Each structure stands twice: as structure tokens, then as C-alpha cells.
Amino acid sequence: MPQDYRVPHLTTALKGPLLELEAHLLNHSHAIEAWFRQEFRDTPAPFYASVDLRNAGYKLAPVDTNLFPAGFNNLHPDLRPLAVQAAQHAITQACPVTDGVLIIPENHTRNTFYLENLYTLKDIIESAGYEVRIGSINPEVTEAQTIDLPSGNSLVLEPLAREGNRVGVTGFFPCAVLLNNDLSAGRPAILEGIEQVLMPPLDLGWSSRYKTHHFQHYANVAKRLAELVDIDPWLITPESMQCGEVDFKNPDSLERLATKVNEVLAKTGDYYHEHDIDCKPFVIVKSDSGTYGMAIMSVQSADDILKLNRKQRNKMSFAKEGLTVDKMLVQEGVYTFETVDEAVAEPVVYMIHNHVIGGFYRIHTGKTATDNLNSPGMHFEPMSFQLSGVLPDQTQGPDAEPNRFYAYGVIARLALLAAAYEIKHSKTQNR
Amino acid sequence: MPQDYRVPHLTTALKGPLLELEAHLLNHSHAIEAWFRQEFRDTPAPFYASVDLRNAGYKLAPVDTNLFPAGFNNLHPDLRPLAVQAAQHAITQACPVTDGVLIIPENHTRNTFYLENLYTLKDIIESAGYEVRIGSINPEVTEAQTIDLPSGNSLVLEPLAREGNRVGVTGFFPCAVLLNNDLSAGRPAILEGIEQVLMPPLDLGWSSRYKTHHFQHYANVAKRLAELVDIDPWLITPESMQCGEVDFKNPDSLERLATKVNEVLAKTGDYYHEHDIDCKPFVIVKSDSGTYGMAIMSVQSADDILKLNRKQRNKMSFAKEGLTVDKMLVQEGVYTFETVDEAVAEPVVYMIHNHVIGGFYRIHTGKTATDNLNSPGMHFEPMSFQLSGVLPDQTQGPDAEPNRFYAYGVIARLALLAAAYEIKHSKTQNR
InterPro entries given for it (chains A, B) (predicted)? Predict the structure, then answer.
């Protein structure tokens, strides 16, 4: 049994023998790692990403890929050196000569969870040896303001300024600009046509990006990985269909959505039946362009769509920052069979550059295995290193517990690779 | 108090408040990290190194820098992802297109400690997604042989072959060749003039390298770092003098050595006196070109040299592989005030590329604070992550225990930078 340390060896919630798929990926780790290395050499990874996974045991798949991850503060502090090392390489690759990084954050100035994340992100990049300052595009930030955080740390937000073709804050216009704002509110004019290196590029903001594109790229790379290790691509790919524009107040439009839902349910049901999977298919309906936990629902039949009440229809019509939802994605629901303290949990894997740098469980005590867990009431449990024993000198023997987290790192990086293809594709289009 | 995660947060043997020097380095971590980043950009680090440190409390200094480190198996398994990530970047930088790495090991085929190290090193590079095979220059290795290791793993040694200007093993002549053989026995003809990338270069083997050169480079970079953070360079620099050729059987030669010993003792004594350091100066006399724990002695007066008996003189005359010692290095002895389970201990820090990837304590129950610990009877204790608490979600508050290990990572990387200058210098000379 190969021990694979390519991704950190973290404790996962599942106990017991390795599931077949996880074992299969572990057994093919060398081929997988060589493939990723070559893929990311040709198609560089975005600066960072977090990927929500669902592990149904018989299937392990990404359900959301976030290119502007928050939540760095939820990672275990022991993993910090991995993040620092990866950040140094990501910045060196994007902008070899820079000595500074400007971060453009989300506009929330009172969400302390978000601001703690921002502090951690800043600290990671500073620890890599860069000067970091934060330039906000929030119109309420008109002068430098210091925000004290519950952790005891503090953060300075400064208003973002533009000088010619560069953006920055007073006296600081570095070559590297890191977006930690998903641009749900649209492409800010101040960022158009800047000559600095913007990571990730403007086109990857939710104002321009569609999840269906991501999942199309994902299906392509998943198919290639599946061929490499000889598995059915279904085992790692969620069936995804774009539904086009949906007006939740228009019965015809809802009818069309219900038809798509039926299609995905039928396809999934057929597969379950063929392969003796004793589960009831379900479907996730979500905005095709960023949800931030809103405009998302789990349905088990087309009727669930047709019987939506007014409140539910309203909820589905508005996503973050008041953006009206237009296009919808209908995606096969993947059960999460992981629990932490009896509450349902889904793993979220964090990456910087092409490296897995940690993960945590999103846990919801009030939800079930078919629900979206990214909703109010959730909490986080950082994954820590799997302790190999009490004594520090205990080395891992050949019968050591295999790295369950490895499979999660593979699928998360596969989603990262899909995002890399999105970036490549957007660059080709803009030429 | 900045929390610095640039190097892993590991448990060190010292308890109690941070010593002044450690605290000073921690407080200047951002400046230090930016400086290292720029230095290593201009002067790339060797592929790997391990550095022996001594922490006397008032002084923290490197005493040995090994460019062909063994002992990777002594690092804590939790730290493996750091090593894998760093190896991937080191290989990408040296040889962007290679898919394979050939390792040339030491000639011991029966030293299982060494072979376990070799297995771990191979595993690190394989985990980074490269094919790895081992080509031995040991004349006894005439065909591929599989060696079973105590850990349950096994290793295949193959005879190194040369085809034109490339070396390799049957069907495997990759662009990247990694030396894990310190070349004490001389420069192997088979490696001269190869067109592959040899890491580190042939000139850095002990057959061509002198410790005094390393410590001269070290003194230079230490002086610059000391200026940057405004400390006395003495605090991080061991006084080192080359003694030239010493024939331990010739009284005149010993007399000359005794004079140098007196010089270093007097200089150190003066400093102790000026700064109220209540310790007795001592000196380490060692071979100027690799010792492997042999040909090294700790002396407290010139008399110790003049009164050497025949057995001691013989011991000092022969180093590894029967090489006659000629040039000697006389170096200020640095007390080690660290103990593990009441035995004296010195930290050994491992680096790949320009990243600290772990460390362990070398411990010797039969030695004192002035002795060389790299000798029979020593054992190793891997450093593990400093557990921040029992609960995995406990985040590090601003009053969290500071990263004591940070200072060790700084001094070790300073020695690594000195080695990088050695490589640069040897390349310039060979042009």
C-alpha cells in the first residue's frame, strides 16, 4: 500500500476501511501526481481556490469551486507553512519581481468572520516575505480605517485608487493584485484594463463566470483522469445541466426547469438502478453564477419545483448583492455520508497554486444528507494532521493508516484544473 | 507579537520565555523573510541541505552544513507535504521539463539507517509526481538488487551507467540527477562533464569543498542579516579559522595548531568577558573537508592539543573512507543548552529548495554541552508540530506560544544562503 504524502495526511470524518474509490485513487497516486504535474505545467492553476466536496461512498464529487475563497481562518494553524510556501511560488510565478501584493477584499466591513479570513490571508502572504496592503472598492471606505478583530489582531482597510493603468493605495501600487472579491456585483470599472497582474483574472468573477462552464471543463478533465486510472467517470462527476434563464414568477419558465429536474433525476435513477445503489436520487437547483449560499434548493421531484410558494420563489430570484438570478444550473445531488458528532458534514478543500494546503468540514446540525450545508447555522471544524501516535518518533510503518484525505485532494485538484482551463479559455476568447 | 508561520511551528526542547535573540528574530520576521526571498531569487539555493545548530541562549549558530543530507527518515511524517511541495519546486526550477529524477546514493549498501533515508527521499520525489530510480557508483553493485528494509519497504539499487554525456540506469537517463553522495572518496570520473543537471554540482562534494570557505560565506551573509535586524553579528556567527595542513605526527605542526586554538580561545574569552558571559571558552578542531563525525575534537586549551596520545592523533588523521585529513578548521565551540530527557541535544534543520521542511534533535546521553554529538551512541528525536490544544478548532490567539523554532529556521537558511554563494562562487571559478 503506497503511503502518499503528496497532500497533507489529515483526519477525515469517515472511519472504517477505505472505500473502493478512495483506495483506487491511493493505489494510482504516482500516475495521478505525474499527470497533475504535467497538466498544471501546461495550464497554470489559479492563485487559489476552495472546493466543496460530497462523499457518498460510491461517488466523490465537487459541488462548488470557489475562486475567491474566504475561510482561510478556518484552516488548522499547523498547516500554515504549506500555505506560505505555496503562496510564495504562486506569486513568484505570476509576478517574479514584485515585493508587494495588494489585496482587494469583499465589501463587507462588518462581517468579522470574513475579516478574520482576510487577516489570515494577509498574514500568509506577509509570511512569504511580501508587503501586503488592502485596497477596498467599497464606496464607504473613503479613508484608511483600522478594524479590530475578535482574535485580537487588527486590519487596515484603505480606499482603492487608480493612477493611470495601475491600482493601489497611497504609495503602494505593486505589480501583483490579488482579488478576494467574487465580483457578484459586477466588474468594477476601476479594475478594467489595468497593467498589473490581477489574480485571478477579472473574467473569473461571478459577474462573467458560469458554473455550467466550470462543470463542462470539469467533466472533460474528470473523463481524462478516469481513463488514466481506469474508473467510470460517473464516480467523480456530478451530472450538470444548464437550464437557461428561469423566471420563478413565470409558470412556463418553472415548467421548463421542472423538465430539466426530471431529466437529471431520471438519468441518476437509471444509474443507481443499474449499479444497485439503494438511494433516492435528488437534484440541486442553483444559480448558475455564484450563490453565496443563496438561491439554492434541494429537490426530489419536479413537483417540488411546481409547488414552490411565493416566499420560496422570491428567495430563488435573488442572490448576493441583490443580483437577480437569471440562469440556473440543475445538478445531480450527491449524498454526503460523512458526519461529525452526528451532524452532516461536507469537506471543503483549500488550494494555493497547485497545492492542497488544508481543509475543514462544513457541518450543519439542522440538515440532512441531501441538503445544501452552506447556509445559516453551519459551523466549521478544521481538519488537523492525523496523529500517527503519541510518541513523536513513531514512524509510519507500511501498515499505517492510509491517507483518506488523499482522494479528497485529488478530486479538489481536478476541480482546480477545470478552473485553470476556464482561465485559459477566457484568455483565448479575449484575444 | 507577530505569529510567524513562515517555517513550521515545531516544538523545541527549550521551555520558558523566549530568549532575547529568538524574540528579536521573531519580531523582525517580515524584514527577514523579504530579505531571504530576494537573496534566494538572485542566488538560488542548493537542492537540499541540513544544518546542525547550537543554541547557547546568548548565541545561536550553525556548526555544520551538509549539502548531501541523509536522515530524511528522521523527520516527522506530518511534515512530509512540505518536503514534497518544496521538492517539486526545486526540480521544476532546476529542470522544468523532466519527468524523472535519478538519485546517486552513498556507497553503503548495508547501512539500513542510510537506506531508510534513501527510501524516504525517493518517496518524497515520487510523491511530487516524478519517476525515481537509484543509480549506484558502488563498484559492488553490478546488477539491479532489491534491498528489504526494516520498515517493510524495499529499495532497488541499479549500477550507474554512462551513455555519451549522460548517466543513468537501464532505459532511464533523465535530465535531473540528484547527488546524495558527499563524494568524500573523490570526484567520480563517470560524473565529469555530464550534460544533465547535477544537483548539487560536483564541486560541492567534500573532495573539492572546504568548510572554511563555507564559514567565510556564512560570516558575510550573517553580517548583512545582522545589519538588517541590528544585532551584533557575533551572536549568530561562530569564529572560524583555517589552520592549513596539519600533520598530527609532527610536533611542529601540532604546535601551529595549538597556536590557532589559543587564538580562538582568547578571542572568545575576551568577548565572554566583555559581555559578562559566565562560560569557559572551548574550541572545536575538525577536518576542513567533511568529517562524518570523525576527525573532530573538542578542546579547552592548547595543552589538550599538545598532550594528544598516539591513539588520539591517529584518529584525527583519518576521516571517512580512509581519506587522510590535511587541512584543519579551528572553530569557536558553541555550548548547546538544550536537553531532551536530560541528555544534551542539538537541533538539525532540514531544507529543500529555500524552504525549511522539518528538523530533529540529535541527542547523546553520554556527552556534555561542549561535546560533538555526531558520534556513535547518538539518537534522533523528530520535532513535531507544536499542538495548539486538544480541540482541533482552537485557533491561535495573539497570546499563543510564539514559534521558537522560527529562529532556528532563520539561522539554518542563513547557512543555506552561504552554501548558495559557495555554488555561485564555484561556478564563477569554473568559467
Answer: GshA, GshA_N
B30, B94: one domain: no
Residue type, B195: E
DSSP calls for B18-87 = PPHHHHHHHHTHHHHHHHHHHHHHHSPPPSEEEEEEEE-SS-EEEEEEESS---GGGS-GGGHHHHHHHH
A332, A260 in Cβ contact below 8 A? no
Position of cell 537542492?
B47
Query: For residue A294, what pLDDT is reported?
Result: 64
Q: How many CB pairs lie under 8 A apart between chains A and B?
A: 147
Any chain A CB within 8 A of the CB of B427?
no
Q: Which of A5, A131, A151 sits opposite B395 (nearest CB)?
A: A151
Residues B280 and B416 in one domain: yes
Q: Which of A9, A77, A88 sits opposite B9 (nearest CB)?
A: A77
Which residue stretches of chain A have pLDDT < 70? 1-18, 291-294, 318-325, 384-402, 429-431
Q: Do A381 and B399 touch (CB under 8 A)?
A: no
Query: Is B35 found in the same domain as B83?
Result: no
Contacts of B391 (CB under 8 A, 6+ apart): none
Residue B240: burial class (beta carbons within 10 Å; 0-12, 13-18, 19+):
buried
For chain B, residues with pLDDT lower than 50 are: 1-3, 320, 387-400
Whether A62 and A138 share a structural domain: no
Q: Which residues 6+ apart lie within 8 Å of A111 measured at CB?
A: none
**Nearest-CA distance from A85 to chain B in Å?**
7
Peptide bond into B77 cis (omega under 30): no
Q: Cβ contacts (< 8 Å) between A351 and chain B: which residues?
A: none
Instruction: Give the whole-angstrom CA distance, residue A385 versus residue A255.
Output: 48
Cα Rg of chain B (Å, integer): 22
pLDDT (0 to 100) of residue A259? 94
Clarify whether residues B171 and B215 are in a common domain. Answer: no
Name the residue among B166, B97, B416, B37 with its Cα closest to residue B424: B416
- B342-388 pLDDT per residue, tens: 788 889 999 999 999 998 888 888 888 788 888 777 888 777 655 43
Statement to judge: residues A109 and A64 lie in one domain:
no
In terms of domains, do B124 and B218 share one?
Answer: no
- The pLDDT score that the predictor gives to residue A5 is 54
In a domain, B13, yes or no: no
Q: Which domain holds residue B37?
A: 20-69+209-430
- Judging contacts by C-beta atoms under 8 Å, the chain B residues touching residue A399 are 152
Please report where in the chains the cell 562534494 appears, as a residue. Answer: B205
Is the CB of residue A371 less than 8 Å away from at least one CB of chain B? no
* B 94-133 residues with CB < 8 A to A: 96, 99, 123-124, 126-131
Query: Which pLDDT score, from 0 to 100, does residue B18 have?
Result: 62
**Nearest-by-Cβ selection for A84 from B6, B83, B124:** B6
On whether any CB of chain B is under 8 Å from the CB of A33, the answer is yes
- Residues of chain B with Cβ-Cβ distance to A85 below 8 Å are 82, 85-86, 355
B395 at A interface, C-beta within 8 A: yes
Q: Which residues of B77-87 are buried (b: 16+ CB within 10 A; e: fewer)?
A: bbbbbbbbbbb
ipTM for the complex?
Answer: 0.79
Grid coordinates belonging to B344: 544534551
Residue A193 DSSP symbol:
T
Compute the distance between CA of residue A388 and CA of residue A8 in angstroms, rounded to an integer. 13
Question: In chain A, which residues have their Cβ closer than 8 Å to the Cβ of B395?
Answer: 73, 77, 151
